[in-house]
User: Fold this.
Amino acid sequence: MISLYLILIFILFALAFTSSSLAKARNQSQALWFWLTLIFPIAILFIAIKDTKEEEIPINSFNTSTALRTLITREIRRFLRIWIQTLVPPAVTISLYFVIFGSLIGPRIGTMDGFDYIQYMIPGLIMLSVITNSYNNVVSSFYGVKFQKSIEELLISPMPNWSILLGFVIGGVVRGIIIGIIVYFVSLFFYPSFEVVNPGLTILVLFLTTILFSLMGFINAIFADSFDDISIVPTFILTPLIYLGGVFYSINILPDFWRNISMVNPMLYVVSTFREGMLGVSDVSIPFALGMIFSFIGILTGLCLYLLNKGVGIRQ
Amino acid sequence: MTNSLDISDLKKTYPGGTEALKGVSLSVKEGDFYALLGPNGAGKSSIIGIIGSLVTKSSGSVKIFGVDIDTNFTQAKSMLGVVSQEINFSQFEKVIDIVVNQAGYYGISKSKAIPKVENILKRLSLWDKRNDQARTLSGGYKRRLMIAKALIHEPRLLILDEPTAGVDIELRKEMWAFLKEINEKGTTIILTTHYLEEAEQLCRNIGIIDRGDIVANTNMKDLLGTLNVQGFVLDLEKPLHEIPKIEGFPLKLEDPLTLIVAVNKDRSINSLFIELSNLNIKVKSMRNESNRLEELFIEMVSAND
Assistant:
């Protein structure tokens, strides 16, 4: 358990230093962004530890990290076992996007923010795949265990709620990151000279995005009562927001009215920050976007734990 | 001796307003084999659901070996195994993976779990099917898998919610023998069942619940001792066409060759046979009309109406 906490602390400080160095590059307060980045994850940790503090007094034979590892392994095995349904489709779909919008139509479009259109599209398409896959992984897996009643295996066990949440979220994060890597390599096939400008920021945003959308998928699954309920949000809310969030275009080409409307689309901040990492251009302020992502992760984690503790959707 | 389970003033009202438990208090001693009986909707599954964290309680407390499930969740749950009424494992996973994962959720690493899994699967005749997908198992094997899952972490308290529902007689008897064996080794067992014969055969103590209230909580022998009247079925040698009248023994003719008699506890059955001989009625064989516990159960539940 101690090694797990040390790793978490290391990740937290790494994130905080990344955020402050970004702020420095933009002539903003380093200290402000350093602490802001640190506060939200600490708040999440505080909620998690508070949830288990009194539970772990006499652990006896129970080992939380073994239980958590079991759940994570099961989650990863689940999507790897059905790799034809989980890992191959994004590669195929994204290849088609590159062929049609990149190679066939792209040259007619010209440049976007000074980049070849296919090059501009790459970060957006990676984010599109990462978001949908991390979301879908958690929503389908958690609703699946609810539907099959195998959630009872977890509820009856001594596993604290935070570890159940963490297990499913890590499953979504791992799938999202694998998909991100696959799509990146597919894009290199179509645009071999692609270079990542800021690998640190790119990895950070990739990681945060998978956490954020895994949490969203978890909440969707908690409230879902049927298979329809787990496809409504991705189909009617998530996908339109991603498509209109700057995956295929810069919002600078939009008229003022639509640009202002786009600014309230949360996907814009995720996609733009990722594009900043990969290409060095963005439609939004990066520290602000990172702050928003951290805030949402903090709020959604708190909400997930609250719902689990209350037993919403999982206990009668 | 500590109690393996202490339930105090447990209440549960479901969101629709149904009051499933109206303040149930119950204690089960360590090493006991306890039956919890009640008609459908009496509140049995709500109690088990609350103990297993599948149902949230409205108020009251639950302690497992003196450990409160609210304040010391992890420790309390480590001592508990629950076999739910409905199948609750992933149908697409292999039998062995399901049991190994279940051990993992209780903090047992895979390397430590494997010998235990082999042991329990062999004991429940599931070892040959360890690599089969759970959905391909028959109903009986699925039940065995449920029990294997619940026992893999060697709980001190095992709760079974109608474990033999829909199971054929052979497997039911096999399960009874298995449960008796683990009870003798020290595991406290609480059982809910619709088969009253099952409770009578296996359990030492019994609680009867009706409409969210405990109407009886006693020793099985004492409870059966309170039975005043017992019914007997007499198979006759020759057919009868009208019901004979014998004072003190109400008789009923089910068919010309079958006579049913209710014998009061304070009457001797010998006097019945003397009277029957006097009437020249010869009895070929005799058996209990129905399960004794069943009569008592109906009596108690009707008294609560």
